[in-house]
Amino acid sequence: MKAQTKNDWINQAMKQFKAVCQRLQEQLSAAGDGAMLNAAEQSLKTTMAELTKQIQQKALQEELDKRTKSQRYIICPMCGCKMRHKGYHTRSFISQLGHIQLRGPYRYCRCGNSRTIGELVSGLSNIASGLLELVLRYCAAMPFAEVSKYIAKDFGLRLSDEYIRQISLDYGQKVAGLRDKHQAGGRWELSEKDLYGYADGVMINIRSEGWKECRLLRYEASLDRRARLRAVLGNSEKFGRIIRREAIGIGASSAKQIVFVMDAALGFSRQVNKNIPAARQIIDYWHVCQHIAECAMVLYGPSNRSADDWRSICCRLLREQGPGLLLDKLQRVHSRFHKQSKRWSVTKLMKFIKRHRNRIEYPSFIAEGLKVDSGPVESSCKGVVQHRLKGPGMRWSRKGAISMLELRTALFSDLWEDTINALSA
Predict the structure, then answer these.
(1) Nearest to 45 by CA among 15, 19, 24
(2) Nearest CA to 289 among 364, 373, 351?
(3) Are 262 and 200 in contact (CB under 8 A)?
(4) Segments making up each domain of the chain, as ranges
(5) Taking the CB of the first residue and of the last residue of the chain, which one, N or C, has fewer CB atoms within 10 A?
(6) Percent residues over pLDDT 90 in the chain
(7) 252-275: per-residue pLDDT in tens?
(8) What is the pTM assigned to this prediction?
(9) CA separation for the pair 395, 207 (Å, rounded)
(10) Using N-to-C axis directions, what is the helix angle for 161-180 and 236-250, rounded to 10°?
(11) Cα(55)–Cα(189) distance, rounded to whole angstroms?
(12) Sequence-ordered strand ranges (E) for 83-154
């Protein structure tokens, strides 16, 4: 009997492919309605997926056999002796085509060194890089049980939700390590551009701890669509270090100026002062308007037209004329009311404006072309954090929440592709 040639599997695959094409052509010729076309399409997908998997398996196995027979694999790198063959090992990993199993020799040297095919097949990972990005994207977008369901539906891969959860946990930590060392995402071109920083907080339910604040950081440059986000589930000191570290990674020192727009929270302001002392700080205009609205409710009562009119006048005065004229107006209002609660509300608003006066000079900020609202970070709080981590009944372990925050902020930043490439390297 004639022995099969080395590449006989390629010829067999080509025959199968031609047969599939012929069968598809016959089905399409006989198709009389959409149902027949759908059936033909599904049949082609199933057959081609299995055929492609067989080709991939054969090609990888052939290349593996070639490498394990080379002198480089057989000779011990430690002592230079020929390593003894001690049997065969099987290596399994997951790709978008399904589970791939490769078989190769296990070798052992008398000096104690050993060698398996694990160092030749997908490094130390059992998930291929193409599928890794797919799983991480799915994990960052939906609950783990749904990820398992849709990967099975879309790709025919059976991955348990616990296995998927473990992948997100492991790689979320790896993403954090890459970002801390500036190994993912490059510097921005910031010459003659303003770099804006935003900070805000979101509460997340942590098992055994209750509701904890997640601090979200967002950097973006003027006239630039890119964004760089990072979230911290920890104290304000750690958040301050992240503020500085991410600014260094972006290359903030080359920016025209650094401007932080945020609410009046003292913790955020202190950390910006401590870690980026050169940054200018602006309190979100709508945050100040909220304080004015609270005072209006006390003065005129809720759902009152007079309260709405007074609030609108004060907010417009602040934006167009500045805090000085607003303080003059509030001083006159204070003398007009005699009820203690109303006078105290006006006094409280005046103290707030005086305390933050240098950060609410909106007419001069607007004249410089600076942004005075924190809409981008508020949108990120909802879209990046709340959408995935604050679903109905959701509670997270601290480790799981941190990993998911790392995946989400990397996915919605400009560094996702660099991050995936670094993880797959």
Answers:
(1) 24
(2) 373
(3) yes
(4) 10-27+43-126, 286-367
(5) N
(6) 54
(7) 999 999 999 999 999 999 999 999
(8) 0.74
(9) 6
(10) 70
(11) 45
(12) 84-95, 98-108, 114-115
